[in-house]
Amino acid sequence: MVTGLFSKDCILPCLFPPGIDEVIYWKKGDKNVHSYYYQTDQLERQDPDYRHRTHLFHENIPGGNASLKLSNVTVTDEGPYSCYVGTQQTKTEVEVTLRVRVSSYYALEYQKTDTKRMLKCYAFLTYPAPRISWLQGNTSIQETDQEEARDGVLYSLRSDQSITNTADPYRCRIHLPHEQWSAEWTMQGRNEWKSLPASLRNVTAGFRAKLNTVFLQWGDMDKG
């Protein structure tokens, strides 16, 4: 298993017993990812999804290294890859699974007007689309409103929740396939003010309201 960061480069490893007249084929299902023979790259039949994004380290091939550098990793790159290397002496097949990880951001914002109190839970730049749920105390509750946006293949989601009882803690949970995050809001005192950390102010694109009488706690519920 190899983990690649979205929009970054990653290396798919493939080692083989050194030999002569190397023939290298990288494939993902039926897609031709990269081919090499006659001591040069052969890219005429390369799948368009991988055009200008693959690189073999030619200087390392004689030593038995056919690892592939994949540039500008995207979510559709995720999945199993096969590396075949044939020489006059041996044949080698290596299977590599690529998992793509997106650098997502999460935030919880508190808003108060003369008539209502509101919590807004944000998930920015995730893949796939996240699911957001709420707890009031230990009871599941329905969100008040929701808004979704797309940036290419990435999703951003905002879920709103009205605060009906300030004596209860409220918890926002953001669910993704490989991880879950939670944020908790509780009332602390009438005169206490807290502001969002700078990194969260940036990703909320201008939402810079002070957090009046709020305690925000983020916890990593589960990863795997």
TrEMBL record:
PROSITE patterns named among the record's database cross-references: IG_LIKE
GO cellular component: external side of plasma membrane
Compartment(s) where it occurs, according to its Swiss-Prot or TrEMBL record: Cell membrane
UniProt membrane topology term: Single-pass type I membrane protein
Keywords carried by this UniProt record: Cell membrane, Disulfide bond, Glycoprotein, Immunoglobulin domain, Membrane, Receptor, Signal, Transmembrane, Transmembrane helix
Keyword Transcription belongs to the record: no
BP-aspect Gene Ontology terms: cell surface receptor signaling pathway; cellular response to lipopolysaccharide; immune response; negative regulation of T cell proliferation; positive regulation of T cell proliferation; T cell costimulation
Source taxon at top rank: Eukaryota
InterPro entries: Ig-like_dom, Ig-like_dom_sf, Ig-like_fold, Ig_V-set, T-cell_Activation_Regulation
Domain Ig-like residue range list: 1-97, 119-174
Name of the featured protein: Ig-like domain-containing protein
One Pfam family in the UniProt entry: V-set
